[in-house]
Design brief:
Elements: H1 2-24, E1 43-49, H2 56-64, E2 73-80, H3 86-91, E3 96-101, H4 109-121, E4 129-134, E5 138-139, H5 143-152, E6 157-164, H6 171-193, E7 205-208, H7 209-215, H8 224-234, E8 240-249, H9 255-287, H10 290-299, H11 301-321, H12 337-356, H13 362-366, H14 371-376, H15 378-387, H16 405-413
Parallel strand pairs: 1-2, 1-4, 2-3, 6-8
Antiparallel strand pairs: 4-7, 5-8, 6-7
């Protein structure tokens, strides 16, 4: 019986792997033809901040310099349960709103956004769209212009290109950088090219105001971005990816801080999987809709990671303690070169993504040596998240380093 279970699960994982690899190939080509529009849309730019006195000033200064008519966007910083100087720093900038929220019970970014949107609907000025950033971010000068283009072209939810502003700080930040470049090119761009739904990434997001008023925010899990994406796709609203609207995110420097952040992601991911997988799967079958099937599959990524670990652990135990192999595997039915080719294809896709994204830093390519450690570390994190998935406590990532956009652009060019 265990042989049947092992083979069936391995077949399912192999099919999912082939499916994802096939889709990723659509991201190799980057389409150049874009329809551009004069500034037409007005924006409320929201910044989620919790005790971010160190970095919030750099972002506000960055946003004030965007290449978009200054009278067509306003900046609102959500000072959420702050006990430091964040609000006073924000108020020191003319025309920037410091919106202070204190709620020790409903903590976390999702709740802060929900509160801010309700306040915004009462604001004297109304906007065509809402843009959201985190306090540690930096945005490319053309960010709002790119959002304006997509909104004018009919998009209702848009995700910008997520990049890292500190990939050279440690082997952990380098691993995040590789992951981001891979996902932008071979996950997000491929789905944009295929007219499928893209996935929101928690920051650098843009929403049509009418849609937010129609749907409500309602995304208060630990992964509010994934939850809102699932809600959109379920309603037939497909987020789109804008490759040219870059936002730079600061990543944790240490393995411990990274593990804490990723644990929160995985805990929230389990919640979203429980809520949305079967409804999305049923709709995809009923409507014969590939985009909804793809979204359903994405919600259970956390379970594919968990299953991969468990299957691997069973085989390792069998080999180490029972003089295995005693358990049947899917790969026994194929020539021995098949798993080798599969492994090489996985490695090549990451290198290909770096080349396609024009990454020139030799340090990033050297970091690929330790990158497998980062990937394998998802396994114990996911296992722990499975047993603690009902923990709804928001884990705040502390940011201590100020980086300006000019520094990021200079480092990328070198």
């Amino acid at each position: 019986m265990i042989d049947v279970i092992m083979v069936v699960l391995q077949v399912l994982l192999a099919v999912i792997g082939v499916y994802q690899f096939s889709l990723s190939l659509a991201g190799i080509i980057k389409k150049k033809n874009k329809v551009r529009h004069e500034p037409k849309k007005t924006f409320a730019v929201l910044v989620a901040a919790h005790n971010e006195e160190t970095v919030v000033g750099a972002l506000v200064e960055n946003l004030l310099k965007l290449k978009y008519p200054r009278d067509m966007y306003d900046i609102f910083v959500i000072c959420d349960n702050c006990t430091d100087n964040t609000a006073n720093i924000v108020r020191s900038y003319e025309g920037v709103y410091a919106c202070e929220r204190t709620n020790p019970t409903l903590r976390g970014k999702g709740y802060a956004i929900e509160w801010m949107l309700k306040e915004l609907w009462k604001h004297p000025r109304q906007y065509d769209a809402i843009v959201m950033f985190d306090a540690d971010n930096l945005a490319s000068p053309e960010f709002l212009s790119e959002m304006n283009n997509d909104l004018c072209n009919g998009a209702r939810v848009i995700q910008g290109y997520l990049d890292t502003k500190n990939p050279h700080d440690s082997w952990i930040t380098a691993a995040y950088g590789v992951t981001y470049w891979y996902c932008n090119r071979l996950w997000q761009l491929s789905r944009r090219n295929l007219n499928m739904a893209n996935f929101l990434g928690g920051t650098g997001m843009c929403f049509e105001t009418a849609l937010l008023k129609e749907m409500g925010w309602g995304a208060t899990s630990l992964v509010e971005d994934l939850e809102f994406t699932a809600r959109c796709v379920s309603r037939g609203v497909y987020p789109v990816f804008n490759y040219d609207a870059k936002v730079f995110d600061e990543k944790p420097l240490t393995f411990k801080a990274s593990s804490r952040q990723r644990l929160r992601w995985m805990q929230g991911h389990f919640t979203v999987a429980r809520r949305y997988f079967f409804p999305l799967l049923w709709k995809s079958i009923k409507e014969r809709n590939l985009a909804k099937f793809d979204m359903a599959l994405y919600t259970i990524t956390v379970y594919t990671v968990l299953t991969t670990f468990l299957l691997s652990a069973v085989l390792w135990v069998d080999a180490a303690f029972f003089d295995g192999p005693n358990i049947m595997t899917f790969y026994q039915f194929f020539p021995p070169w098949i798993p080798i080719v599969s492994l090489l294809a996985t490695c090549v896709t990451f290198i290909l993504a770096l080349i396609l994204e024009g990454v020139k830093s030799w340090r990033i390519y050297v970091s690929l040596i330790t990158f497998p450690i980062f990937l394998l570390s998802w396994w114990p994190i996911t296992v722990y998240a499975f047993f603690t998935q009902n923990n709804k406590t928001w884990s705040h990532t502390e940011h201590t380093r100020v980086v300006r956009l000019e520094e990021v652009q200079s480092e990328q060019a070198s």
